[in-house]
Structures are given as C-alpha cells and as structure tokens.
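Handout, tutorial session.
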Amino acid sequence: MALPVPNLDDRRFQDLVDDAKRLVQQRCPEWTDHNVSDPGVTLIETFAWMTDQLIYRLNRVPDRNYVKFLELIGVSLFPPTAARSQVTFWLSAPQPDVVRIPTGTQTATIRTETDEAVVFATVEDLPIIPSSLVELGSMLDGKAYRDQWAALEKGTSFACFKDVPAPGDALYVGLTEAVPSNAVRLRFSCHIEGVGVDPTDPPLIWEAWSGEAWERCELDADTTGGLNRDGDVVIHVPKSHEASLISKKRAGWIRARVTESAEGQPAYSASPSITSLNAITIGGTVDAVNAELVVAEDIGIAEGVSGERFHLQRGPVVPGDEPAVLEVSAQAGWEEWTEVADFAGSGPDDRHFVIDLSSGELRLGPAVRQEDGTIRQFGAVPEQGARLRMRSYRVGGGRNGNVAARSLSVLKSSIPFVARVENRRAARGGVDGEDIENAKIRGPIRLRTRSRAVTTEDYEHLAREAAPEVARIRAVAAGDGSEAGSVRVLVVPAASPAAGGWLRFDQLVPGDETLQAITDRLEEARVIGTRAIVEPPVYRGVTVVAKLRARPRQNPNRLQDEALQALYAYFDPITGGPEGTGWPFGRPVNVGEVYSVLQGLRGTEVVEDARLFGADPITGQRGQQTQRLEVEPHALVFSYEHQVLVEGA
C-alpha cells in the first residue's frame, strides 16, 4: 500500500472565490452585486485562478523532493536504445576490384509527408570481394570426394549427387577467395533430372566453411527449383567464411547439401544433372544501427578541481557495444580515461569518469571528507588547462527505428558501383528513453534489490538494467513453472509489425547478445545454489477465422484489412491485450473477445461467425476449433495467419 501523499493546500478555484465573496460581505457590506456579471467578481475570479495555479505548483514540491531522493540513491533515466538491422548493398555489376563500404555509411527509409526518414549507419567496414569459380566437386555419403572440374571444363553433364541422392550428399563449390558477409550468385545450367522434389521447397541447404565447421548460408533466391533447371542461386555467405583445403585444393568453399526430408516434403528420386556453372560476387551485408556517430567532440577545458562536470553537445547517448572513452590532453599526448558505473572503487590515480547517458552529463571524481577529517580523492583530476574530448559516441535510437523489412532503400551518400540497398529483415531493439514516472516506480525496487537477486522482482529489475532494449521481462521462480533451484527469466524483444500489422515469429526471439548480457549480469547477483535460465517464453499460436457483414456503403476490402489489423494488434505479445501493454502471460483466449474486437470496427454491421484455432507458430499446423484456447501459465499468444471474409451489405 502506498503512503498517503500530503496535500499542502487543498483549496481549489471555487473555494477561493467563495472565501473572497465572504470577505466582501464582511468588509464591504455596500457591495451587494455578487453575480458573475459584476466587474469586481470578475477580478475576484481572475485572482482566484492565479492563486489556484500557485497552489498547484506548491503541491508539486513533494514530487520534486522524491525525484531528488532518487538521484541520491543513483537512479537515472534509462536512455533510448537504438534498433539494429543488417543492410545489404547490391552492386550494379560485378567488379574486378574490392568495393569497400566504409563505416558510418548511412541508409534511410523514404521520407513522406507525414513521416521523417529513419536513418541507419553501418558500424564497420564492408569489403565486397570479387570472386569466381575455381573448383567444383561432389561429396558422396560425406566421405568420398569426386572432382567435377574436368567435366565442367569440357561442358559435359555430370550428376552432382548419387543416382538416388541420400542425406549428406553435397555439391562443393570452390571460389577464388573467401567472401565473408558477401552475396554470391551461382548461375547453373541444369537438366530436369532431379525429379521428385517440390521446386519451391527442395530438401537442400547451402553452407559455407568457417574454418572450424560448416555454417548455414541464407538463401536469397533460387530460380533453379532445387538444381532442376537453368537459373540462378543467390546466397548470403556468413561473416565467418574462410578459405581452406579440401582434397588438397584451396578455395573459399561453399556447398549445397541434401538434407533429411521433413514430414510431407518430397525427396530427390534422382540426382540433378549440371552442365555449366559460374559464380560472381554481387553484394554484401553489414550491421547497421539507428544512431548517428559523433567523433572527437571537444567538451571543455579542465579547471584542475575535483568533481568537475561537462556536458556533451548532443544527447541522449545511445549505449554502445563498448564502454565510452574520454581523452584528456597531456604532455605525452592524449590520455585515455575509462568509463565506470560509479567512483566507489576509484583511487586518486585512477583515470575514471561517469557518464549519464540520458542527459549527456559527464562527471569526474569527487573529493570526499572522511570521518577522521582527511580528504579522499575518488578518481584522478585532470591538470588545469587540459583539453577534454570524447573519442566517439552515438545519438539517436528510439522505437521509431524498428522499421519493417526492406524499408531502408535510400542511400544517403553516393558510393561507386552500388545500385541499391535494402534491409532483408525488420530492424529490432529500438526502445524509447525512460520517463520519470517509470523511474519513480523503479527507484524503490532498486533500493530493495541492492544489486543482488533474491526475489523474482530482483531478477526482472536486474535483467532490465542489463538489457533496457527489450520489450518485456518476466521471472518465474521454482515451483511456479520452473525446475527446482532455478529461476527462468523470460525475455520478449522489442519488435515492430510489418505493413500488414503482423509480427514474424523470428522477431520474437531475442538475440544471443541480449541473452548473454542478461545472463552475465544475473550470474554476478544470483544467490549461491540458484541457477538463472534466460530464454524466450513459450508462444502459443492463435488463428482466427471470421465472417463479417459490412455496413451499407462500406468498402468490404477496406473492412477486411481493418479487421485483420485489429486482430493482429489485439493478439500481440508486445502491445496487445485488453490494456494495450502486451498480452498478459498465461491469459487464455476466448472466442467472445474475437466477437468484441471485430464488432467494434466502425464498418462492421454484424459478425456472422468467428472461430478460434490453436496453431503451431513454427510448423504452421492448425489445431482443433475451440471456444477457449488455454495458454500455459507463463506463455504468450502469437497471431498466426488470421482469415477474415467480408460480405457487402
């Protein structure tokens, strides 16, 4: 229960007017017209309004004191986090030399009348390395390597797998160079002999050698139907690709490997036959962040005293992958100062500083008087007249950066031989900065936690501190759906729906870096004997099939789009649910809610039918129709392919 808040003055506008009129009756009995039309009453009401505003400001004093107390215990606002994505640069034509995409290259969404362009900047250099085919072979049963280069040079057809391909058979393609993070186009001339497979879903995957293991490549396009006809295969090679020796032949190796057929997936009944093959590099992919990089910014000149404060010119600062570095001028050059969380462990010679990312304020070590009267210096003090500058920092971020796939299509600066850019996946991880109201709630939790994890609230608070970019966090203790001696921390990443209003399932899986950051933080604070398991929650798919009748003069197609968007928005694990703050963990779904959502649309005359189905969001398999879809205690719902039929009036 919250403590009662004192009201320093509970009078309001009408109370002040009534008090003034009573004084008028006592002090000025000759003033008899107290109606609102009297000019004197108008003056009374004017001064009462001004006094009411002063009382309102007076009652804000406890709030200000509360915020100042939060500052004393070290509570500061979480800064915004920047969304991240991968941007692919496509070449206009194959180049004989390496094309370099420098760090900081900016791409953006298209600016419209209502929306500003969202800008992303690359975080590292991207070399697009020219390559061509230099070796070709087949691996049968994962053991016997068969060289196919001679047949390729002669232009004769050859079977790339065994007569009846088996899982593990592979076509090995050797490139002149390793092409990490590059896109490679393989142009095949094939005969239709690899019969039996579904051309849109062949049991075939592409992999690249990383120096230690084969890593899967992302398939961008395959017009060969699983190596069954002439066409192109475009693959994105992983960043770890390395050149290596296979059968005493050195090349940048990639391969197409036959896999076990999934349920309902046809297998190869005969090996594809290849006549010709060539390879070229046509693009590359690099990580990008929704933030602007500020480099070597001068922030001031030191006065040579303890506890100095400086302000960055831009802010708020987006948290980076590495700690910020302050550079201080000295006789021997620029000295590096290290960022720390606080000065508790800093000695008088430690070059430390603290930065408030939300406000952009940078603080140097203070001098504190001890109990015995001596002065202790926490952190070094720069010499008087020394220049201070930040090596680099990023500004920007926010949830606006969670743009949909293929939204980043504008190259802000011209780069030779680059024809276009795109983000093949939606950006995620962008979260707005924390507001003061949330900090007021978080302050007492931090005071109770004291950097140790005992209760589930402690785990949630520390996880939020370690990864402020995630959307939702829930801790589940042993006996409440978690195994004995462990605490499960369920993490839901921030994600924005695509243009149709729906989220892809892979958007709800947090990145390995996020999970590792939370795990490392909880390992420092957990109680001995307790194990922290950090993972995404279980998602229960839900599919709605509904039939509506539109109101007169309503466009059925438009109503259908609105109905689908409403369903995807309501059954959203991040922003859906009855309160609009994300579907509650463990809350079941009733078909009555579906009727309520659809009937609430302006263009709906009547909901004629609504059916509710469970669905597996991974396999897409639909369950039985039900009136109430039960959800595990700590699971969330996920919309999967709703279907709405709208009939005109």
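The second record follows below. Compare its token runs with those of the first.
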Amino acid sequence: MDNIDIQLLDLLQKNSRMTISELSKELNLSRPSITERMQRLQDRGIIEEYSARVSLKAIGKEIMLLIQLKSLKISPVSFEGKISNDADILECHRVTGEIDYFIKAAVNNMEDMRMLIDRLMPYGDLSTSIVIMSPIPYRHILPKE
C-alpha cells in the first residue's frame, strides 16, 4: 500500500459517496487507475464495505448503553445466535478476562432499556452503563506510513 492508497482510504472514509471522477480529480489520477486501486483494496480486504453512518438520535435511539456480560450461562455460540438479530444491539465483542462480552446497544427510551436488560439477564450477570457523552464517537483508520 502506497501513499496514494492511504490518501484514497482517507477520502473514502470521509465521504464514501465520492464518485470515481471526484476521486480522480482529488488525487490527480485517471479514473481507471482509481477504479483499479479501489478494487485492489477491496480484494485485499482493506476496504470491507461502503456504508452510511446513521444518527441514532435522529432515528429515535435516545439512549446508548454499554453492557458487560460475565458468567455466561450458555455456550458462546448459542448466546451469539440468540442476540444476532436483536435490533437494539449495535455491537457485541467477546473478550478475554473476567468479562465475557462487551455489548453496545441503543434504545428509544427507559422502557426499551429495561426490556433489553430483561432479554439479556438469563444469559449471565450484567453490568449496564448509560453513555452520557462520546468525545470520540468514530475514528477514521489509516495505516501507518
């Protein structure tokens, strides 16, 4: 990966809707060259997907939670299968140490939060924290040069 690839990644993370023509102008490369670089980055698994970040607040998800689950009472595979389609769960990370999982969730209100906690309680011991502020809500990632 060269400096141009890194610049391309930076531009795409800032705005994944940039057209090939816009990227071509910004990087002073031909459109076929940009297309080839993007395809190579995808083939190597560096670019996993193109997506839009949605404002949780704008869609009514007013409360963000970080949930720690420990003392898992069923197998990890079973647990992950049971929560995989829960729309309130944004992320789930299996980790080492005393905690088995860190779960990031977003709900509309306190009642929805209670219902989510009730859904998760049968699987282990929970500790729930409400996010009051996210000073770094998202970070673009670039490889070191």
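Points raised in discussion: Residues 57 and 63 are 8 Å apart (CA to CA).
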